[in-house]
Amino acid sequence: MAFDGITVAAIVQELQSNLVDGRIAKIAQPEPDELLLTIKTPQGQKRLYISASASLPLIYLTDENKPSPMTAPNFCMLLRKHIGNGRITCISQPKLERIIHLDIEHLDELGDLCKKKLIIEIMGKHSNIIFCDDNGMIIDSIKHVSAQMSSIREVLPGRQYFIPDTMSKQDPLTVDLEAFITILQNKPMPLSKTIYTSFTGISPVVAEEICYLGALDSGISANNLSKDVLTHLYRQFIYYIEDVKSGNFHPTIYYNRNEPKEFSALPLSHYQEYTEKEYDSISKVLATYYSTKNTLTRIHQKSADLRHVVQTSLERNRKKYDLQTKQLKDTENREKYKVYGELINTYGYNLPSGSKELTALNYYTNQEITIPLDPTKTPQENSQKYFGKYNKQKRTYEALTGLIQETADDIQYLESISNSLDIARSEADLAQIKEELIQTGYIRRKYSKKKVKLTSRPMHYISSDGYHMYVGKNNLQNDELTFSFASGNDWWFHAKGAPGSHVIVKTNGDELPDCTFEEAGRLAAYYSKNRGSDKVEIDYVEKKHVKKPNGAKPGFVVYYTNYSLMIDSDISNIKAVQD
Length: 579
Known about the structure:
This protein is α+β, with helices and mostly antiparallel strands and 579 residues long. The protein is 37% helix and 21% strand. The protein contains 13 helices and 21 strands. The strands form five sheets. The protein has a seven-stranded antiparallel sheet with strand order 20-19-17-18-16-15-21, with helices on both faces. It has a five-stranded antiparallel sheet with strand order 5-6-7-8-9, covered by helices on one side. Strands 1-2-3-4 form a four-stranded antiparallel sheet. α3 packs across α6, α4 crosses α5 and α9 packs antiparallel against α10.
């Protein structure tokens, strides 16, 4: 989700309650476009992280510190000179702009009280941190913007600060009904786009939410709506904005399975298909959302080489499987040639020389059939030709039956590796998957003096009844969980007929409650290729009934007596344990 004006309003509210009257104890600039302010308040020490990065501008409270360069940049030195030990008197947001003003009082060299303003603009690639005096004159900024870079506004020392108005947007906090209707009726574009291009601080996601609350299609043209419909939409708009005015925020992250998809300072009821998790702080939402996103992105990038190996092998094996299946289909009529040979031997003794066909009674079906003959060959030679064709196709069938099963097993195994890559959450997980691919011959081992340590461990959950549940992240962990960790009376779960994790529930000798069976089933469904389906079929059985065939690939098991259940893959209410 865009870092919109509503999110900024929630941040401002949080900063007001935490930082006002606090003193700036430390100013650091970890990166060229970042600031980290340490502020001492009556409630304790707080850290304010500010980033003007073009790709990811952010501002939030954090507990984490970041290392600073040995020599502080000029902008950092300037801030230390002017507002080091300064007191934050006010934190505000003009209208619903993506702008935050920090008003700071400090003493100058002569001991006189001075006022300064630190302005944080969260505006995508135009984001900036601007330091001004009490008259709005720019003292300096973390990014300098010259006239050659922008024809709208220069951001340079000595220039007057102002907010550029390039879109002529209206303030959603003050717009009245008449102005709202006039704006929407004059824009021949989709309704949601009309809303977010007409009002300050409204993102496309919020515009969709307002349309949803008004039970209107966000794709219909705004200028085709009647005045009554627009009046109804205005009421929904005002109800939504009223929460912003009153500070009634509900910071929430919306998850698609385990991946954060959106965050919001106010509820997004049109995201019903996602799992929502509410937080008590918008700072926690931003830190959690972006750190998780960054981790997933980094892991996905680092797994690219492994994915390429797996995908290439999968495509090769699928082509091989299709070719082998086609060749096997060509042997379906092999028995016919055997019958032809037998019937020629039986009835061909009185055939005239040069005959092109033989009509005879098939004693297997009691029906007459006509057998094509080579007129240049004797009946015995024709019989031998058909027996030769039969024997060749029989050998092909017997060979292909085994090869097709091997290829199918390879495809199933590679799909399980692909599933392991999908649920990998750390570099240690990737290292273990790479080791597995080396052991199974898909990657050649590179010998080096430095030995790679495999530190990845299975995921650990606790059921609502207090039973410990473990989930393998890859095939090596699946084998270890099932055949080394689990005891005979523990329960084993797996998605039926689909690549996925082994789930082990430790029973401690108890009879498991139904709720624990369901939660373990959900884990098996979630960590399988079928996650996201409405219902997933799960096989479960006591571990003592699960066997591993000799020579089988990692993760492959067999079992013959099992129970089954149909369950969804929602694990949002299952407690995870950080081991």
